[in-house]
Amino acid sequence: MVNRKKLQIITAIQEDDDTNSLFLIKEGDGIFPCKNGENILCDSIIRLEHLSTGKNLHSHDFPSFITGKQEACAFGENGIGDVNDNFKIICYKQKGEKRIFGKSEFFLQHVPTGKYLFIDYKKSMFNDFNCRGCPIRGQREVSLTDEKDKQCLWKVVGDIILESDDSQKNDDSNFDNQNIKDNNQSNDKHKEKEMNFLREEGKMICNGSFF
Q: pLDDT tens-digit profile of 55-98?
């Protein structure tokens, strides 16, 4: 049984450049680790770790606060949780191409319960009637539903590679990585432009993050 005192609420906001919205994309609990920078494909089972707290996107059979749907929350410590952190990516109207980019739309299906992560746009707003004086007024509750509709669709906004994969390094790659590092240090404007490009295009990668 989950200790509810260790759970944190998951909400959604309108802005797509809030660093508190960054999640690290990882392989699912109990699944062989994916390689750093590897493309995440349709039908993959993943976990999403909230970078600010180290907790994973999580769900279980418990009603959410506002809508009474299945609760979505953040759970775990330092990225370690359990099988209830597992979500399957189901791509929407994407033919042939299995990689997920900024233009891709997809559902996030909770593996243990089969329900879909969504926002109820009619009922999910935190306000003074349901959360008087609380700091999340104006934000929306994120929960899960049985109904697979457009309120369940998500997309990637940006990606950043966060850490190196030591198991893939060799003398040639070390040389190349050093050249990249030197070039970035000597050309800050180019680095800023490149990061803007990543934010603009967006793709889902292992050990990368998105808003």
A: 999 999 999 999 999 999 999 999 999 999 999 999 998 888 89
**Domain locations in the chain as residue ranges:** 4-210
Q: Which amino acid is at 140?
A: R
Phi, psi of 152 (to 5 degrees): -100, 0
CA distance 81 to 58: 8
Residue 196: DSSP 8-state = H
Rounded to the nearest 10°, the torsion over CA 91, 152, 141, 162 is 10
Q: Which amino acid is at 48?
A: L
Of 26, 21, 77, which is closest to residue 48 (Cα–Cα)? 26
pLDDT computed for residue 189 by the predictor: 42
Q: How far apart are CA 48 and CA 7, in angstroms?
A: 15
101-123 tens-digit pLDDT: 878 899 999 999 999 999 998 89
Helix (H) or strand (E) holding 185: helix 171-186
CATH number, domain 4-210, options 2.40.110.10, 2.80.10.50, 3.40.50.300, 1.20.1070.10: 2.80.10.50
pLDDT for res 166: 46
